[in-house]
Design goal:
The chain is an alpha+beta fold and 131 residues long. It is built from three helices and eight strands.
């Protein structure tokens, strides 16, 4: 009887461990919603656009203490909205597929990890947010 209970406990421990690995694997396929940047840092980047790697990461509006959005390899996550949107890079522009419209912004980089997005409403500077 003790042997059966021991075997059952070992089986349960292994199944729980595999379940946690699957959860982590699924999380790494999506943009992390929170403060953990390890997936963004370790994710392999296969992009034809040479600037996409520079775009990846947490960005904050100038003067803000928290990140405004997080750019992943295939989506942008807005931290205040708790929502992700797909995007596409076309030369020097980023096209974001929002729910009810498509926003197109020219982008460029300034020294000191500053991203400038220029759209119909003018330009906005963001700094690379680090914790």
């Amino acid at each position: 009887m003790k042997l059966q209970i021991t075997c059952l406990l070992i089986l349960l421990l292994f199944s729980c461990n595999n379940s946690n690995k699957n959860k982590l694997s699924n999380q790494s396929k999506h943009l992390i919603r929170g403060t953990d940047t390890t997936v963004l840092k370790n994710k392999s980047i296969k992009s034809e656009n040479k600037h996409q790697k520079n775009l990846l990461g947490y960005w904050a509006l100038k003067g803000e203490q928290n990140s405004t959005f997080v750019i992943g390899t295939d989506s942008i996550y807005y931290t205040d909205e708790f929502k992700s949107y797909k995007y596409k890079i076309i030369q020097d522009s980023i096209k974001i597929y929002y729910d009810d419209f498509i926003g197109t912004y020219k982008y460029r980089f300034k020294p000191n990890d500053t991203l400038v997005l220029v759209g119909d409403d003018g330009s906005q500077d963001y700094y690379r947010f680090s914790k």
